[in-house]
Amino acid sequence: MDFEPSDDQRLLVESVTRMLSGAYSFAQRKGYMSLAEGYSPSVWSQFAEQGLLGLPFAEEYGGFGGGAQEVMLVMQAFGQVLVLEPYFSTVVLAGTGLNVAGSSEQKASVLPAIAEGRLKMSFAHGERQARYDLTDVVTTAKRNGSGWVLDGSKTVVAHGEAADRIIVSARTGGDRHDADGITLFLIDAGASGVARRGYVSRDDTRAADISLSNVQVSDEDVLGAVGDGLPIIQRIVEAGIAASAGETVGAMEAMNEITLEYSKTRVQFGNPIGSYQVVQHRLADMFMAQEQGRSMAMLATMSIDNPDQATRTRDIALAKVGIGQAGRYVSQSAVQMHGGIGMTEEYAVGHYFRRCMVIERLFGDPAYYLNRLASEVG
Fold first, then answer.
1. Residues 6+ apart with CB under 8 A from 15
2. pLDDT tens-digit profile of 146-183?
């Protein structure tokens, strides 16, 4: 895959960067955090106006027909300013599920509404007992005439409180850890029996725990084939890893820029700290980690459309380890270089640090994927 941006991709990045430069200073972001939604509805509307919400969807559904590379570039720009809006949960996670498994009717009903900014979505799969095991599902969906009844709970659902519709996984057959028997459903967030407890995550984004009690859904709400939801979930997770890798690259770029500037202005022992060789070496190491992370983000993006599942799974695991290690090194180094101010709420570096630490654990931390890679070798 050629990762040299095309002219259209350069224009995309320029337009997104220009829009964010006027709408997403650190002070503005802090203001958005204090809003009831936890993000800016005005910025969300700007995303829709610029076509970002329909970026990966086919033109027949109001989208622009973009792919994983375009999404990575947008997420990289988002990472540079720590965007709070539910783009990741709506467009990347839920959008991937619909693109991969949605029927023509489901796509026609949902995707244009997402592209226009009228519909926000989330992906609810994780459960308290599961940790990173995608097959560990105890939420149930039982037949009830021509429909289904869902019971169970989901935890740490990104932007679950803001979502209008939710993709939920539930077990329609098999035992707790069986790969078969998991089914995905499209449910209305306001449906009877759906309860949400929203909260602010450690990285300032919003999440929710969702409980399902006797939630009634129809066959038309099934996403994909009954009992065959795991491959769809895997594709959603892979898309999420690739997109969040791009976001981490953007965050590393911002931290390196902030830290370099700080090294030029912070004076110690009568000289800017950037004049000392040990600081210069650390800055060089941070830049190298950033570029290594960029390569891992490219690997993840390149792997998304690989039809060989075994190769795709291995490459995604490698990318998750690499981007996690790079993000951790740059984040910790940036905070250390700033000293105590680096961890204060009033300074941006600490916020980048927390976001990178959350992404590092999203869908599995590096240790989890290293164990998976090691088991393959063994």
1. 50
2. 899 999 999 999 999 999 999 999 999 999 999 999 99
CA distance 351 to 331: 10
Q: Which CATH class is domain 122-227?
A: mainly beta
**Structural domain spans, the chain:** 7-120, 122-227, 231-377
Q: Which residue has the tokens 């390196």?
A: 256
The average pLDDT across 271-288 equals 93
User: pTM for the whole thing?
Assistant: 0.95
CA 328 to chain centre: 17
pLDDT digits (tens, 9 = 90+) for 62-98: 999 999 999 999 999 999 999 999 999 999 999 999 9
CA distance linking residue 197 with residue 137, whole number of Å: 20
Which CATH number, 1.10.540.10, 3.40.50.460, 1.25.40.890, 3.30.70.60, labels domain 7-120? 1.10.540.10
Contact indicator for 340, 229 with CB cutoff of 8 Å: no
- From residue 333, alpha-carbon distances to 174, 259, 329, 353, 375 in Å are 47, 9, 6, 10, 31
Q: How confident is the model at residue 5 (pLDDT cuts 50, 70, 90)?
A: confident
Domain 231-377: CATH class, spelled out: mainly alpha
- Contact predicate 200/206, CB 8 Å: yes
